[in-house]
Amino acid sequence: MSSALLGLPAVDDTLAAGIQERLAEVEEALREAVQSDYALITDASRHLTDAGGKRFRPMLVLLAAQFGDPAAPGVIPVAVVVELTHLATLYHDDVMDEAVMRRGQVSANNRWNNTIAILTGDFLFARASDILADLGPEAVRIQARTFARLVRGQIQETAGPAEGTDPLEHYIEVVAGKTGSLIAASGQLGALLAGAGPEIVATLTSACEKIGVAFQLSDDILDIASESEESGKTPGIDLREGIRTLPVLHVLRSAADEDARLRELLDSDLTDDARHAEALALLRAHPAMDRARADLRRWVDEARAELLTLPDVPAREAFLSLCDFVLTRTA
């Protein structure tokens, strides 16, 4: 697959070219969807739309549609729906996180204000619903349930684990809700609108959710393991902000005496550069990283096993290549 599709190794040039053409259609439809007769709404909505991004979820819609009729009339609109939904959540996330930048630009909440950012996200949700209304009640139901899971995941993250709940299990639930659910819906809706059979739709829904969880877990590992010159990102951002991701949660599960200093650091203010550097170095050398990689591999292996039950077509190889990509990016 071409580099524009996440840099995956080539699996089928014809498929890659077809997906690229369809993604261009999605891009055009996306720009039309955020148009408003009120200039501020259009400007605020285009703020993230025009900033680009991988269009990962629309790509999954288009790949899933290969198991039915990829030219079916609902495929492009539903790809736009999942991207609008994703973009809407980013506007809301930036408000909750008090973000300053997003995709290399000043965030909407910083360029305008929190109210404009929240309402812009709401506008994008409304536009997604408007498009869905023409795609049938089942598509509307899937989107509504996905939206409920997104909200639940965000509330769970905000509230934290309840007393007596395993923090690691709670974290996986949050990831499945906030990240996995919309990626699952992308596979589900793409296959459904292309007219794929129910077993194929169910398999793609489940496998795509696992891929979504795996992507977040790989990001957790990269945040600790990567060097800034390799990844282009500053390592340990989540660590500095006190966000307890997968490797950190594995450390906090440990009661070993030799982990006392690291646990102490993880419970401290890591905005201090010296403490942050020490915690990052200790975490990189800790067995928690191997445990996190084992968790990642398990999610990927389960997704791969499900994908292998699908018909042997080029799109299946693309999905399997995606599984390989999730693993190799943390190697």
UniProtKB/TrEMBL annotation:
The keyword Phosphoprotein does not apply. Signal peptide: none annotated. Keywords: Magnesium, Metal-binding, Transferase. Coiled coil: none annotated. InterPro entries: Isoprenoid_synthase_dom_sf, Polyprenyl_synt, Polyprenyl_synt_CS. Its cofactor is Mg(2+). Gene3D superfamilies: Farnesyl Diphosphate Synthase. Belongs to the FPP/GGPP synthase family. This is Polyprenyl synthetase family protein.
